[in-house]
């Protein structure tokens, strides 16, 4: 007998009682833990500030979400400690075929961790939510903070719906996802796709459902299927699915902010990966080259990076970037057909299909499907009140210095304007084609 | 907290264990109990034979449904007794505003009832399922027998589906029903509609869901809404919804079979209603005039029948029949705008809409929505294996004499061919326009 949850009923019941959104410290992305271990080893004492930013200003979160409820949810996360079973799973599990991925000193740190305090203010209809303190602690706020805001917004919109309206809403969302899964299955047995949707999920239960639907509909990759896993550790643990992920922008952003000279700044993204190279191999050696422009990053990269397993494409025109990377690998004497390219920027079925068909056989394409896997309720309620929106939680300062991210899409750039200009000069980033940030 | 059931999970679990389909003697249509009481009073010792007939021969039930499983389900019904709470509900409830609808001697009979034995054989890929014995006992097999065969067929088709495929199947069916409910709501606040879908439901849990969705989506009539109730007593009791229904073809069919002369035969349908008239008033005084042709029935009807509350249209062309009835009421000095006309033949939203718009204001139209409320899974599985089909369980003989039903649609006629001809002569039924029996 398989346990199950009737999502609509749970949502209906939310109307009467507090129901914690984040119930576990490992209800977070696997790569946060990998990065945290790296930070804990290499830069444990850096003081950072993370800030939650809603890029979709039209959604006035402070009008939708009650401040008291938000504080209760955030306080609940601060009350969490790593549970014994979670610790056992992290210590004992095999990730990417490797045992004891997490060092003992890091596990001890995690077992004793309480997330640091938060600061919350309302401004212009938005919440200003910031965290600061030691980097390895503060960084673990990112995912729960995003998940809480996303789900409180869902709950706010669902609050006035009747029980059967809710059931039908979820019925429609399930039908929609299943049709996407059927379309993905039609792409053939070589597809490789993962759930990257924790941060902007509609709700925890919904992500859990989506992951299981992917697992059943596409088959798990370790049994010959197409579904390679979920970024969410808690769901991976509970559903016995592979946890996956590698690294993200916060590493080069913080390393860059700590640079004293332009020369150091220019080397910062490579320094991150040199630290990573020491610790990991195989599927964990995936570059994320776009923090300060992919072209400049590849042009200036040391040769040992060309030997890495692959790269992740998270902004800009994915076709142009992948073509550039293919040419770059060839120029460094590497065989692109053996390289993993993970697409993870605003994907939905049409993009996945088109990228898969274009690059199959030329590289090993793989897909990290995020928001439109775990939060596609577009058009399902009046006023489209459940459409996903662009919420991020980023490192904004390190040891008092502001951070900057450029990416391959100027619409995704973050940081003070004058610093953005300076970084563009240092990294040789010229005009970029703006692309709509979908989610 | 409202209890709920995840239908897909229950279906999934059916795969491993026996799960009784009919779990209560009142999981039956309310009018069976009303008719049973009438029979118990007026014709308790008539010996009848009921037979289950699948009019959709292309669906080879004996190939789909395991005989052992079918016997287990039928045996389970024979193990049922009226539960204390059920008896209390029948004795104490108000039906159509009237208390103590059921007489004490009848309740005692019901409390002691065990359904009689059944006979089951396979022939030409179909099951021959027959019941015989005393009329008030045998007649109560009709609904559970139909519900069991319908649901075993659903289970057989669903058996090889995965858990998430099942969830999506139900998600699609829920979405479809909700869209129908939204279309019905758009017809305006005067609509009156009931669930008549017990006998050909997809499953008990699905009917239960459909009734609740109707209740939430259309509002209950006793609180100003459009949903006037369900024919299913168990669901009515559990969900605190009005139980509704009046009488059916078996009464005139058996009375007719017992007639010794053509004159008695001609009077049989009126004799049924004379017995009924004695016992009931108000919303229970609804004629079902089509057993041997509506026109002849109305033309020959005594004047007191014109004073009844209304009629039910269950075969033939509903527009022509209603127009005929309107003219008939006028000819008898009655005001048709005060008459209830209950449409119950193969309805779906389009027919409901068209009949409602045509007859609103001219009569009081009302709708008994059956199979396409509780069993619309058309097109939702490969090969359309869940499409509803035309299964009936009818009285085929009374005291050894075969029964006959003509109805207003020759495709629905039942009985030996030579007797059908004889009945047609006696009741003056000429050529009838055949209409496809949809469900």
TrEMBL record, chains A, B:
InterPro entries: N/Namide_PRibTrfase, NAPRTase_N, Nic_PRibTrfase, Nic_PRibTrfase-Fam, Nicotinate_pribotase-like_C
Pfam families associated with the record: NAPRTase, NAPRTase_N
EC number: 6.3.4.21
Pathway: Cofactor biosynthesis; NAD(+) biosynthesis; nicotinate D-ribonucleotide from nicotinate: step 1/1
Record's catalysed reaction(s): 5-phospho-alpha-D-ribose 1-diphosphate + nicotinate + ATP + H2O = nicotinate beta-D-ribonucleotide + ADP + phosphate + diphosphate
Protein task: Catalyzes the synthesis of beta-nicotinate D-ribonucleotide from nicotinate and 5-phospho-D-ribose 1-phosphate at the expense of ATP.
Family: Belongs to the NAPRTase family.
Record's protein name: Nicotinate phosphoribosyltransferase
UniProt source species: Paracoccus sphaerophysae
Gene: pncB
């Amino acid at each position: 007998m398989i346990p199950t949850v009737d999502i609509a009923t749970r949502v209906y019941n939310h109307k009467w009682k507090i129901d914690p959104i984040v119930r576990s410290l490992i209800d977070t992305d696997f790569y946060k833990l990998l990065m945290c271990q790296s930070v804990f080893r290499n830069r444990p004492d850096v003081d950072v500030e993370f800030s939650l930013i809603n890029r979709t200003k039209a959604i006035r979160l402070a009008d939708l979400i009650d401040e008291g409820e938000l504080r209760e949810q955030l306080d609940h996360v601060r009350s969490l400690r790593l549970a014994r079973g979670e610790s056992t799973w992290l210590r004992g599990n095999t990730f990417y075929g490797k045992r004891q991925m997490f060092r003992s000193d890091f596990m001890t740190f995690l077992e004793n961790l309480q997330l640091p305090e938060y600061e919350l203010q309302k401004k212009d209809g938005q919440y200003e939510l910031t965290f600061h303190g030691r980097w390895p602690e503060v960084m673990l706020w990112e995912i729960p903070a995003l998940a809480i805001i996303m789900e409180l917004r869902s709950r706010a919109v669902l609050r006035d719906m009747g029980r059967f309206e809710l059931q039908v809403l979820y019925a429609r969302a399930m039908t929609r996802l299943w049709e996407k899964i059927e379309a993905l299955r039609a792409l053939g047995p070589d597809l490789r796709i993962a759930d990257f949707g924790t941060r902007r999920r509609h709700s925890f239960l919904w992500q859990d459902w989506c992951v299981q639907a992917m697992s059943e509909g596409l088959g798990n990759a370790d049994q010959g299927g197409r579904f390679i896993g979920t970024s969410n550790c808690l769901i991976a643990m509970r559903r016995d699915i592979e946890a996956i992920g590698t690294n993200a922008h916060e590493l080069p952003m913080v390393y860059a902010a700590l640079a004293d000279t332009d020369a150091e700044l220019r080397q910062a993204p490579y320094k991150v990966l040199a630290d990573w190279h020491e610790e990991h191999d195989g599927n964990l050696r995936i570059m994320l080259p776009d923090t300060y422009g992919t072209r400049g990053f590849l042009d200036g990269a040391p040769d040992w990076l060309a030997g890495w397993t692959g790269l992740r494409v998270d902004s800009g025109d994915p076709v142009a970037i992948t073509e550039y990377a293919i040419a770059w690998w060839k120029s460094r004497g590497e065989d692109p057909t053996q390289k993993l390219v993970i697409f993870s920027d605003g994907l939905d079925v049409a993009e996945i299909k088109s990228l898969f068909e274009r690059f199959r056989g030329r590289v090993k394409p793989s897909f990290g499907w995020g928001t439109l896997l775990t939060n596609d309720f577009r058009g399902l309620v009046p006023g489209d009140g459940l459409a996903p929106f662009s919420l991020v939680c980023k490192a904004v300062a390190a040891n008092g210095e502001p951070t900057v991210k450029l990416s391959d899409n100027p619409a995704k750039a973050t940081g003070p304007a004058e610093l953005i200009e300076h970084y563009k000069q240092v990294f040789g980033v010229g005009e970029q084609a703006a692309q709509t940030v979908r989610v």
